[in-house]
Design goal:
The protein is of the alpha+beta class and about 725 residues long. About 30% of the residues lie in helices and about 30% in strands. It is built from 21 helices and 35 strands. It has a six-stranded mixed beta sheet, sandwiched between helices. Strands 15-16-22-19-18-23 form a six-stranded antiparallel barrel. A hairpin with a 5-residue loop joins β19 and β20. The longest helix has 18 residues. The chain is globular, with a radius of gyration of 28 Å. Bound molecules: guanosine-5'-triphosphate. The site of guanosine-5'-triphosphate (GTP) has 15 residues, from α11. Guanosine-5'-triphosphate binds next to α11. InterPro entries: EF-G-like_DII (IPR053905), IF2_II (IPR044145), IF2_N (IPR006847), P-loop_NTPase (IPR027417), Small_GTP-bd (IPR005225), T_Tr_GTP-bd_dom (IPR000795), TF_IF2_bacterial-like (IPR000178), TIF_IF2 (IPR015760). GO terms for molecular function: GTP binding; GTPase activity; translation initiation factor activity. Keywords: Cytoplasm, GTP-binding, Initiation factor, Nucleotide-binding, Protein biosynthesis. It is found in: Cytoplasm.
Length: about 725
């Protein structure tokens, strides 16, 4: 862990922390200096003594089995289900907080968990209590592979299916049929009511990975840094990568034009660098969300003639969320319009003040056209890499991540993979995502056949049974029979996942208090989108005032414009809530948010945001009103009728438009009006609602400025009972 990271964790500036280190005669050269694990532990323990905050570090791993320092992963909720994560720290309520149906919010503790007529019978396969954690909660562990259908769960609990359905309906307010599959959160809730604690069986992958986890006995050696370029469109990522490849790879002993495999290595006198050619920050975050942390350093490319643009900030936030060090490449300095000073000032304004201006960010002027500054940039990358002291175990079976994969006509499935640990050898049997196979041939980035690939080395492999996905993990399995078994089980798992269970993974404001109480989160992550820059600042200012020593709001990303899918992906990866002020989510984002279960809240008034967030943080009450989207109509023609005033001749594109609903008028992605619907008409008749695919006339109360091309979104307002702490 480095000085600035620990400082951030402790809520200090790097300068303050350096001063404290100095007081204790602990040597640290600057904010980038690496700290001894014992030092980190010391500071964290002191904090614990002071504040009671556990000795845990957000998002960072302290790699040592010996130290008592625990790791907390901010985005880890998805991978680690409540019940297995920490039964002792996540008691009853934490589990019950994750039920999808908002109606469940009104459930009180006083309601007994076991329905009157549904008496639990002894389960068929209850395991013996094995852990001290289990003893504390008084629940018996029961292994259930989730998702599981209602029918199978009933069988497991030796109860009648109809009784389980009744229980789900009465107690969890879930309507489920017997073939409905239930997510682990719901299963955990059911089990708890019957005196059991959900224990998930180990996944085949995990078993193998556990065996493969590098131990102390392994031989750890240095490895080269893996670098990703990110930035605004057209700022020159591809050109820079090309320039580096042309000048550096072609210069190397092999010469000639190189083959593009989505990643390549550059050899320099001081060391090697692996460049990943990912298509953008969304891919970067999507990979990270799947646990494929394939990047050590991000180079943020900003064109010096254009300056910082929305996607620059987006890329920066994605890199920041990943906790990856950032180097800025100020590109296109050959252009007469390039203004490096202006760019440095802008960088300062977003928290990336360059070193030569007194800041901490390495910012290098480059030109992908003339090659100026490229050597310096590479040098800086290597310098940063040295600070990171990147290491990997070598003498073990290889594992890593798939960068890209495709089906080749002549060669079958071809995957570019990045070895992260161990040495991959020709003939190794590998599992990659849902595919497996023996490595038939391997090629380096120059398309030369090789027999071995070392950590940090990108290679193209052939021989897999099918095409894996980018971000999939791969690993070598010695026992081929076992490997096939694992792949079969994984495919079965995939099949079950596709059953799309009723589930809930992400944080909703309503759950916040319980999560805080359970010690699961201490920070409410927010992604903020607004129609204008001024509002962003005002909202962030007011949000910053809410936090207490116990809980805080952290704005992970903010930007002007509609909520897009990149925001949703970031929210997914960082377990954030999205807040829109005078903006709506675009269709893609809405769909993705629904799929990933991301909470998107839109507001018209700043103090409502403030109030909701404050209430949420205090854990006093859930927001009282919830807007449920029910449909969208596109305005095709606007009429004026003598009796009814302005009527929007519309076509219902999605869902339905109901007379009783609340309406929002959306123009160019921005909400310009919200209010009641006055009437919905089919031809001349007033109707209660109009369904998808039909035309209708809509008039709104107190709003006549409707235009062709506007959208009218209909919402049903749901009142949710207040919950007290
Ligand atoms: N003059 C000048 N032009 C550059 C430089 N770098 C890139 N360009 C030009 O800028 C344009 C965009 O460059 P790309 O490399 O495609 O930009 P990109 O960031 O990869 O763009 P996307 O992949 O679309 O996100 C191209 O026309 C390049 O020729 C540079 O240093 N100087």
């Amino acid at each position: 862990m480095r000085v600035y990271e620990l400082a951030k964790e402790l809520g200090l500036t790097s300068k303050d922390l350096l001063a404290r280190l100095k007081e204790r005669k602990i040597e640290a050269k600057g904010h980038m200096a690496s700290l001894d694990e014992d030092v980190v532990k010391l500071f964290l323990e002191e904090r614990q003594a002071r504040t009671g905050q556990p000795v845990a570090v957000a998002g960072k791993r302290l790699d040592s089995a010996s130290t008592a320092v625990k790791t907390r992963k901010p985005a880890g909720r998805k991978e680690k289900p409540e019940a297995v994560r920490k039964p002792a720290a996540a008691p009853a309520e934490a589990v019950s907080s994750v039920i999808t149906q908002p109606a469940a919010a009104g459930r009180g503790k006083e309601e007994g968990p076991v329905p009157e007529k549904v008496k639990p019978a002894a389960p068929a396969a209850a395991a013996e209590p094995e852990s001290a954690a289990a003893l504390e909660t008084g629940l018996k562990p029961l292994e259930v592979d989730v998702p599981i259908t209602v029918k199978d769960l009933a069988e497991k609990l030796s109860m009648r299916t109809s009784d389980l359905i009744k229980f789900l309906m009465l107690k969890l307010k879930l309507l489920a049929n017997i073939n409905q599959s239930l997510s682990h959160e719901i299963v955990a809730e059911v089990l708890k009511a019957y005196g059991y604690e959900l224990v998930l069986p180990e996944k085949p992958d995990e078993i193998v990975r556990k065996v493969k986890k590098a131990g102390k006995g392994e031989q750890w050696k240095g490895r080269s840094p893996i670098v990703t370029f990110m930035g605004h469109v057209d700022h020159g990522k591809t050109s820079l990568l090309d320039m580096i490849r042309r000048t550096k790879v072609a210069e190397s002993e092999h010469g000639g034009i190189t083959q593009h495999i989505g990643a390549y290595e550059v050899k320099l006198p001081r060391g090697r660098i692996t460049f990943l050619d990912t298509p953008g920050h969304e891919a970067f975050t999507a990979m990270r969300a799947r646990g494929a942390n394939a990047t050590d350093i991000v180079v943020l490319v900003v064109a010096a003639d254009d300056g910082i643009m929305p996607q620059t900030i987006e890329a920066y936030d994605h890199a920041k969320a990943a906790g990856v060090p950032i180097i800025v490449a100020m590109n296109k300095i050959d252009k007469p319009q390039a203004n490096v000073d202006r760019l440095k000032k802008q960088l300062g304004s977003i928290g990336l003040l360059p070193e030569d201006w007194g800041g901490k960010t390495i910012a290098v002027g480059v030109s992908a056209k003339t090659g100026e500054g490229i050597d310096h940039l590479l040098e800086m990358i290597l310098l940063e890499a040295e600070m990171l002291e990147l290491k990997a175990p070598y003498d073990m079976e290889a594992s890593g991540v798939v960068i890209e994969a495709k089906m080749s006509k002549g060669r079958g499935p071809v995957a570019t993979i990045l070895v992260q640990q161990g040495v991959l050898k020709e003939g190794d049997f590998v599992i990659a995502g849902y595919q497996s196979g023996r490595v038939r041939a391997m090629f380096n980035d120059l398309r030369q056949p090789i027999e071995e690939a070392l950590p940090s080395q990108p290679v193209e492999v052939t021989g897999l049974s099918g095409v894996p996905e980018a971000g999939d993990h791969f690993y070598v399995v010695r026992d081929e029979r076992k490997a096939r078994e694992i792949v079969e089980q994984k495919q079965e798992e995939l099949r079950r996942q596709r059953l799309e269970p009723l589930h809930k993974n992400h944080l909703r404001l309503e759950d916040l208090h319980k999560e805080i109480k359970a010690g699961v989160i201490k920070q409410l992550n927010i992604i903020l989108k607004a129609d204008v820059q001024g509002s962003l600042e005002a909202i962030e200012d007011s949000l910053n005032k809410i936090g207490s020593s116990e809980v805080q709001i952290s704005v992970m990303h903010k930007g002007v414009g509609p909520i897009n899918s990149s925001d949703v992906i970031l929210a997914d990866a960082s377990n954030a809530i999205i807040i829109g002020f005078h903006v709506e989510a675009d269709d893609q984002a809405k769909e993705l948010a629904q799929k990933e279960d991301i909470d998107i809240r839109t507001y018209r008034v700043i103090y409502e945001i403030f109030n909701d967030m404050k209430a949420a943080l205090e854990g006093m009450l859930a927001p009282k009103i919830k807007k449920n989207f029910i449909g969208r109509a596109e305005v095709r023609k606007v009429f004026r009728l003598t009796k009814h005033g302005i009527v929007a001749g519309s076509f219902v594109k999605k869902g339905k438009i109901a007379r009783s609903a609340q309406a929002a008028v959306v123009r160019n992605g921005e909400v310009i009006h919200e209010g009641k619907i006055a009437a919905v008409k089919r031809f001349k008749d007033d109707v209660r609602e109009v369904a998808e695919g039909f035309e209708c006339g809509i008039s709104l109360v107190g709003f006549e400025d409707i235009k062709e091309g506007d959208f009218i979104d209909a919402f049903e307002i749901e009142h949710i009972a207040r919950k007290l702490a």
